[in-house]
Automatic annotation (TrEMBL):
It holds the Pfam family DAO. Keywords: Oxidoreductase. Coiled coil: none annotated. Residues 3-366 form the FAD dependent oxidoreductase domain. SUPFAM superfamilies: FAD-linked reductases, C-terminal domain (SSF54373), FAD/NAD(P)-binding domain (SSF51905). The keyword Oxidoreductase applies. This is FAD dependent oxidoreductase domain-containing protein. It comes from Nostoc cf. commune SO-36.
């Protein structure tokens, strides 16, 4: 029986653990220095931009498509297994277009994307201002020129998802070790072959394994450094806030996630909305103190789109560090160079929740098919 050891239990590590738990003949152990769904997973808004994204071909699009499709079966599967309710918004994503939209420019470009998506089996709609006002009267900004509606894209609560993945994996026999720090990863080099990692030395003793999956986000850099193959992943801070309006914006029966100018307004029920997120790069080393002015500018942008939010109370603010690969596309999925049994599933930057199911499939395939192909891949996100 092969023993797979997964390091990291954010949404990506948890998704890999659950997917592998469906494979017979595997023993699976997950270790993390803290509780599940911390760091970038706990800070994410869970907006799953698949069909509405500008990725149209190659691995970047395939991973999005695979994940969006998998979520439709994964959520009921997890809810049935665990009895947990996972907040999953099936009412789509509405992208507001304006003169200053940084996304695809012009209606003609969106019409071209709609044609491409139609050929791929996905549906998008362009709404003019009259239709937008009729369906979403809460949106009121003179610079909005229309919207693109993606009914098949989704939004999910990342923390609830991760906890359900952990519980379902546990029911399938996966062992989780939280509060465990990896101290070292001794290696050996058999004659005429790649290096081989045979165990982890942790704060709770040694963990031997046949496969090791590094899904530790920012923690992947020091881990790969211990293996003398450092993957450089840098932090990018994101801040968000939860606002309480006390009632639904616009039509209470139609509450899609709204996005515009890289600001998301996410309904979470009970008249509450998540709003975010900032994108803050380190200015000195890896330290990034949260910039309150940037968070306020995100709030002001949300209010500009939906003026009613000006009366909302801020319930809480939070922040988290996203793992962004330096000098290469995100995410980093594949074999660690020089190793036959160490896999990378890290550096998802702003798309960890979106790409978690596809990442889990990719890692599962590498393990069950004995890692067909070689080398490390950087899949553009």
């Amino acid at each position: 029986m092969s023993h797979v050891v997964i390091i990291g239990c954010g949404v990506v590590g948890a998704a890999i653990a659950y997917q592998l738990s469906l494979v017979k003949g595997l023993k699976i152990t997950v270790c993390d220095r803290q509780a599940p769904a911390q760091d970038s997973t706990g800070a994410a808004l869970g907006v799953l931009m698949g069909a509405i994204s500008q990725k149209i071909k190659g691995k970047a699009w395939q991973m999005r498509q695979t994940s969006i499709q998998r979520y439709e079966t994964l959520i009921p599967e997890l809810e049935a297994l665990t009895g947990r309710k996972i907040p999953f918004n099936r009412q789509g994503i509405l992208m507001l277009l304006s003169d200053s939209s940084p996304s695809l420019e012009g209606i003609s470009a969106w019409e071209k994307l709609i044609e491409i998506r139609h050929s791929q089996g996905w549906h998008l709609e362009i709404w003019d201002t009259a239709k937008l006002e009729n369906i979403c009267p809460q949106i009121n900004h003179e610079k909005i020129t229309g919207a693109v509606y993606s009914p098949q894209d989704r939004q999910i609560d990342p923390t609830a998802l991760t906890l359900a993945l952990v519980e379902a994996a546990q029911q399938n026999g996966v062992t989780f070790k939280f509060g465990v720090t990896v101290l070292d990863a001794p290696t050996s080099t058999p004659e005429f072959s790649s290096q081989f990692c045979h165990q982890l030395e942790t704060s709770e003793g040694k963990i031997a394994g046949d496969w090791f999956v590094i899904a530790a986000g920012l923690g992947s850099t020091p881990l790969t450094a211990k293996l003398n193959q450092m993957v450089d992943i840098r932090p990018v801070l994101g801040q968000a806030l939860q606002m309480r309006l006390g009632h639904a914006l616009g039509n209470p029966d139609f509450q899609p996630a709204i996005t515009g100018n890289d600001v998301h307004i996410v309904p979470v029920g009970g008249g509450d909305y998540w709003v975010g997120a900032t994108v803050e790069f380190p200015s000195n080393g890896n330290e990034i103190p949260p910039n309150q002015e940037l968070l306020e500018s995100v709030r002001e942008q949300a209010i500009a789109f939906c003026p009613e939010l000006a009366t909302a109370t801020i319930l809480r603010t939070w922040s988290g560090l996203r793992p962004r690969p330096e000098g290469r596309p995100a995410p980093v999925i594949g074999k660690l160079p020089g190793f036959n049994n160490v896999l990378l599933a890290t550096g998802h930057y702003r798309n960890g929740v979106l790409l978690a199911p596809a990442t889990a499939y990719a890692i599962c395939e590498m393990i069950t098919f004995q890692g067909m192909g070689s080398g490390e891949s950087g899949v553009g996100g």
